[in-house]
Amino acid sequence: MTTILGIDTSSYRLGVSVCKDGQVIAEYSTWLKKNHALRLMPAVEHVLQDVDLKPADLDAIAVAKGPGSYTGVRMAVTTAKSLAWALKIPLIPLSTLAVMAEAGRYFDGMIVPLIDARRGTVFAACYQSTQDGTILEKEAEKHQLLADLIEQLKTMNQRILFVGEDVSLHQEWIQAELGDQAMFTPGALPSARAGALCLLALNQEPMENVHAFTPDYHRLPEAEVNWQHEQQRNETERSGKENGVNRY
Description:
Number of domains: 2
CATH class of the largest domain: Alpha Beta
Shape: globular
Largest sheet: 5 strands, mixed
Strand order of the largest sheet: 3-2-1-4-5
CATH superfamily of the largest domain: ATPase, nucleotide binding domain
CATH topology of the largest domain: Nucleotidyltransferase, domain 5
Number of helices: 7
Order of helices and strands: EEEHEHEHEEEHEHEHH
Structural class: alpha/beta
Radius of gyration: 21 Å
Helix content: 25-40%
């Protein structure tokens, strides 16, 4: 595979890139609260036109598979799957957190990409860079309480680099808890580059069954959680009424 299209809409960031023969030759990125559904395919078309490529020239599609925004992740994955199927080329899904960790390449310490998940929780994982720049996963990504993550990080006798736009929401508290152990990427540095997504895809195995692939949400969407809670509440009330009737 020599020419790969990368797509990421797992947050407010919309990223599209193309790498050819191991080099990123085009990269487009915005950070706007706008509808990805209306902007993603025009962005793909624009990037391909800029580098004089047609969809038929692509050898694979790489996509950020989450975690992140439920709607955003779903949009990128659906688009990538559709393109891969239509063009009959491989689909290569990659963790959004792994792509974010590339911002800490060569950092001497633990790299912690972090995405806010509301109500005191985050999506996070721990990575470490080797001497040759390879980034290895040390703690698997998961949805967890930020307080639990910080307590775990306190036990690590090394510096910790927090990566991600959402880090700013918690930076003051993280700094207070970890002190000099905590470091932060500059706000102007993108937390996830579509170009990094493409390059990571070069060393990943593609999906054998494109249709069977599903995103990594790591939790149910809030609407579904609320629906389940409502069903459980109704079931409890119904059970209570039935038990009340049986007593008489």
